[in-house]
Design brief:
Number of helices: 3
Largest sheet: 5 strands, antiparallel
Shape: elongated
Number of strands: 8
Strand content: 35-45%
Order of helices and strands: EEHEEHHEEEE
Radius of gyration: 16 Å
Structural class: alpha+beta
Helix content: 25-40%
Distance between the termini: 5 Å
Strand order of the largest sheet: 1-8-3-5-6
Length: 140
């Protein structure tokens, strides 16, 4: 069995944002030379996420509003106990928990084996700094 590891870096200028990283993941699968296997993609930060969904602007906007309704940004220590530690990103931890840490996609015939409309996204919930995403591909 072979494995291939690649780390990509992103910098999201806004506090919350979504980036379609499917092209970078496809490139990593191609670089790996693996024809049959699995591709893991995960955020290496506790305030960001990797998930699969449709690349449709209305859906992305809906996520922004939905997540803000569920866990509104509030840097004060009154809403989020986490902010009592001197942090101001308690909401970002909750948003990450909802959206998830990673995805696994089958690799078939050297390509990501997606369902219709599926794309891989990076979700940022505490932006303004460089973040890393791990792509790990295993197989033959």
């Amino acid at each position: 069995m072979k494995s291939h590891r690649k780390v990509i870096e992103l910098y999201v200028r806004s506090r919350m944002g979504f980036v379609n990283i499917t092209p970078q993941v496809r490139a990593a699968v191609s670089e790996s030379g693996i024809r049959e296997g699995l591709c893991l993609v995960n955020s290496m930060h506790i305030t960001s996420s990797v998930f699969i969904n449709d690349d449709e602007s209305g859906l992305i906007e809906d996520y922004t509003h939905w997540l803000e309704d569920l866990a509104p940004y509030d840097p004060s220590p009154e809403r989020y106990h986490h902010n009592r530690t001197g942090e101001s990103n308690g909401d970002a931890h909750h948003k990450r928990q909802i959206m998830g840490r990673e995805v696994v996609v089958a690799v078939t015939n050297g390509a990501l084996d997606f369902g219709t409309w599926e794309q891989i996204f990076y979700g940022e919930f505490d932006g303004h700094r460089k973040k890393r995403i791990l792509i790990k591909i295993i197989g033959e």
